[in-house]
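Researcher: Please predict.
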Amino acid sequence: MAVVELKVGMHCERCIKAIKKAIKTIDDMESYQLETEINKVTVTGNVTSEEVVKALQKIGKTATNWGED
């Protein structure tokens, strides 16, 4: 079980809905959490950060590893 933490810009309700929808399409994703006030996305399951980043890139979102600035 992996925990992937990413920084993703979430500026509006439409962005948030798109991010949730994209994350739900990831195979073997068990749970996710969006912390909109700090632009943090946490995904738990049998996933890699590359899989999550790729899913977010498909909807035009840029994601970086949490703590990487």
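Model: The mean pLDDT is 95.
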